[in-house]
Automatic annotation (TrEMBL), chain A:
Name this polypeptide is given: GAF domain-containing protein
SMART domains: ANTAR
MF-aspect GO terms: RNA binding
InterPro entries: ANTAR, GAF, GAF-like_dom_sf, GAF_ANTAR
Pfam families: GAF_2
Alphabetized Gene3D superfamilies for the sequence: 3.30.450.40
Organism for this UniProt entry: Kribbella antiqua
Domain ANTAR span(s) in chain numbering: 174-229
Top-level lineage group: Bacteria
TrEMBL record, chain B:
Keyword annotations from UniProtKB, A to Z: Transcription, Transcription regulation
Lineage, broadest ranks: Bacteria, Bacillati, Actinomycetota, Actinomycetes, Propionibacteriales
Domain named ANTAR: residues: 167-228
The keyword Transcription regulation is assigned to this record: yes
Pfam families according to UniProt: ANTAR, GAF_2
Keyword set includes Cytoplasm: no
Gene3D superfamilies assigned to the protein according to its UniProt record, in alphabetical order: 3.30.450.40, Winged helix-like DNA-binding domain superfamily/Winged helix DNA-binding domain
Organism whose genome encodes this protein: Kribbella antiqua
Name of the protein in question: ANTAR domain-containing protein
Length: 240, 238
């Protein structure tokens, strides 16, 4: 874990430009930019994860990287969720060929966003999952062993940055950036609670219902959740 | 050897130190020694703030009591303390001009045979974790380039320390992060459950939970979990 390269990456992304104090966002932006410069990929993103799934996007280098995260959050499945759940990198050098592991919409929507290959690396400490580093490429092709090693070192550096952020937070609380990201998704959790009452099902099933609705109506999970929270959409069996 | 060549060697040497099981103290000692050589100082020490905010000497070029005492003294006054407090470099301090600002420090440093001193911060994203203090027996004026170089050495030390700390307490921090994330999620879900079952606004649902938590000296996340698994209902909260 503690390779000299990880420290080199940290030095590069954590060191403030002269006369300037970087925010946590800027540090994560620099991490993505440095990784894109280091290995042949087109974009990168870092998302928070819990055992329950996606907990919010921390940073995305461009629109396709953000779209990839939103897609996986809406579907509740995809390579970054697998990487986090299974605690191992998930490498998809040719998404069109291997993307069918997930629901049919996944590979097609990713292709629409211009993504041809995905490489997802878990950010974890032992068995504790914190997040995932997702890389994508517009063209197909695998990472070679050196590029893979480089990506793993960047994942390790990203884990250190998350831990360092949390180090500065009071016990029991989240660092403001992490809290902001987590709060950006609060409607999804609120809607889950509401739907579980409306449809008289457990929380897991309630989230599945919201997801299915999002998928069927081709809208994002977040949009459906907002409709539920603002009582424009109700999942009661009488449809009230 | 030119200065650039010496500098290149120092960075290679530092990179060699950063092996898997590197010793932080070794690294800090090396930084002190090399900063003295590169910045034409006679002695250096690296001080870090401990958990109670006391500045502790972690490494120095000599174990000479007179030098160590200069750092201990700076818990009360001195350029290192100012540097630590402000996060700014305090460089090119000619001691004979500073008897007014730091009388005890100035007297002790002069008695130890020093004419000039510099203090550079170990800082990261606005947080200062310590300072590198340099002492010179002759009057010394560092150029902008010298200061940039000294600061680069300090930045290397800072990142090494940060990484060490993250590894040492990684399990604890990761658990805290994960549990804080999870409890936020459960609290939002419980708000949803209450809002739908009692037909109230989400904000009113939160107030109900918070008031119940305060009355019964319970944690909000405990109550939220009970609401989501059905052991606690809206009626119980009112």
């Amino acid at each position: 874990m503690a390779s000299p390269r990880v420290r080199q990456i940290l030095l590069e992304v954590l060191t403030d430009p002269p006369g300037h104090t970087s925010t946590a966002e800027q540090v994560l932006d620099r991490l993505c930019a440095a990784l894109i410069g280091a290995i042949p990929i087109d974009g990168a993103g870092v998302a928070l994860m819990t055992s329950a799934g996606h907990a919010g996007l921390l940073v995305a280098s461009d629109a396709p990287a953000a779209a990839l995260e939103n897609l996986q959050q809406t579907l509740g499945e995809g390579p970054c969720l697998d990487a986090s759940r299974e605690g191992r990198p998930v490498l998809l050098p040719d998404l069109a060929r291997t993307g069918s592991t997930w629901s049919p919409g996944f590979a097609a929507s990713a292709a629409d966003a211009g993504v041809a290959a995905i490489f997802a690396f878990p950010l974890q400490v032992g068995a504790i999952r914190l997040g995932v580093l997702d890389l994508y490429r517009r063209t197909t092709g695998a990472l070679d062993s050196l590029e893979l090693a480089e990506a793993l070192d960047f994942a390790s550096a990203a884990t250190t940055i998350l831990l360092d952020l949390q180090h500065g937070a009071p016990p029991g609380e989240l660092h403001p950036l992490l809290a902001e990201v987590a709060d950006g998704h609060r409607e999804i959790h609120q809607a889950t609670g509401m739907v579980s009452v409306q449809a008289a099902v457990g929380l897991t099933e309630a989230l599945l219902l919201i997801r299915a609705h999002a998928y069927a109506t081709e809208r994002s999970l977040f949009d459906i959740a907002k409709d539920v929270v603002h009582r424009r959409l109700n999942f009661s069996s009488d449809g009230a | 050897m030119t200065r650039e060549q010496r500098l290149g060697r120092v960075f290679v040497e530092l990179a060699d130190t950063l092996v898997d099981d590197f010793d932080v103290i070794d690294l800090l000692h090396l930084l002190c020694e090399r900063s003295v050589e590169l910045l034409d100082a006679d002695a250096a020490g690296l001080i870090l703030a401990d958990q109670r905010g006391r500045l502790q000497v972690m490494a120095s070029t000599t174990e000479e009591a007179r030098l160590l005492e200069l750092f201990v003294l700076q818990n009360d006054e001195g350029p290192c303390l100012d540097c630590y407090t402000t996060g700014q470099q305090v460089a090119n301090v000619n001691l004979d001009e500073f008897s007014h600002r730091w009388p005890r420090f100035q007297a002790a440093a002069t008695a130890a045979g020093y004419a000039s001193t510099h203090a550079l911060p170990l800082r990261l994203r606005g947080q200062v974790i310590g300072t590198l203090g340099l002492f010179c027996s002759q009057r010394s004026t560092l150029s902008e380039d010298d200061l940039d170089l000294g600061q680069a050495l300090c930045d290397i030390a800072t990142v090494a320390l940060l990484h060490e700390r993250a590894i040492r307490s990684s399990e604890l921090l990761a658990e805290q992060l994960q549990s804080a994330l999870n409890s936020r999620i459960v609290i939002e879900q419980a708000k949803g459950v209450l809002a739908a079952s009692a037909d109230i606004a989400l904000s009113a649902a939160f107030t109900l939970m918070r008031d119940h938590a305060r009355r019964n000296h319970l944690r909000l996340s405990t109550i939220a979990t009970d609401i989501t698994n059905g052991t606690l209902t809206a009626a119980d909260l009112e």
